[in-house]
Amino acid sequence: MALADFIDQTNLKPTATTADIQKLCEEAKTYGFYAVCVNGCHVPIAKETLKTTSVKVAAVIGFPLGAMSAKAKVFEAVDCVEHGADEIDMVINIGWLKSEMYDAVRDEIHAIKQAIGDKILKVIIETCYLTDSEKEKACALAVEAHADFVKTSTGFGTGGATVEDVKLMKRIVEDKAKIKASGGVKNKEMALQYIDLGVSRIGTSSGPELLK
């Protein structure tokens, strides 16, 4: 197992410049990371920088709040794919989930998955704002909507990935979806612990440090 194969090297800062994104991509090339994860406006430059490599480009949508309309999220996802994104990391509508509007949450995820076809869809449930029962429901809805991954966090909330949340998510999704741990993954030991628990991808802005 090569740890680099699990890493989505990430820069989602609002202040990220074109040079910052190019640096991110060069790091991904140097270390052999699985993907880079960027905001939608940076997809073209990431795709261009990585065009001669196998590194994937993941784009976040509905980020970081998840509170825009479902139609806007679908448009954003399609736009990112048209500009070269291989994967989409979407934020659920947290308010809808907490309002028990489960059909709306499921339908939004499903609409985005349908719109992007065979591209990978990761569903960010933002665990720091949810009760355990809400986390369980969010994971179940993502599976019902045929998402490829459930993901812990945006990294912009009040907390990130935890061992307890990853265990909960694994128990609910079983082998029906993969898991991405993100938010606060800063060292190799933590990353390896998540992988041992069944995580398939690690979202981090500290990829090079994880490999030391």
β-sheet strand percentage: 15-25%
Report the structural category. alpha/beta
> Count of DSSP E strands?
8
Major sheet size, sense and barrel closure? 8 strands, parallel, barrel
Query: Can you give the helix content as a percent range?
Result: 40-55%
* Overall pLDDT metric: 97
Q: H/E element string?
A: EHEHEHEHHEHEHEHEH
Strand order of the largest sheet: 1-2-3-4-5-6-7-8
Distance N terminus to C terminus? 15 Å
Write a brief caption for the model.
The chain is an alpha/beta fold. It has helices at residues 18-31, 43-49, 70-82, 94-98, 102-116, 132-144, 163-173, 188-196, 207-210, and strands spanning 7-11, 35-39, 56-61, 87-91, 120-124, 149-151, 178-182, 201-204.
Describe what this molecule looks like in 3D.
- This protein is α/β, with parallel strands linked by helices and 212 residues long.
- The protein has helices at residues 18-31, 43-49, 70-82, 94-98, 102-116, 132-144, 163-173, 188-196, 207-210; strands spanning 7-11, 35-39, 56-61, 87-91, 120-124, 149-151, 178-182, 201-204.
- An eight-stranded parallel beta barrel has the order 1-2-3-4-5-6-7-8, surrounded by seven helices.
- Strand 7 (178-182), helix 8 and strand 8 (201-204) form a beta-alpha-beta unit.
- The radius of gyration is 16 Å and the shape is globular.
- The model has no long low-confidence stretch (mean pLDDT 97).
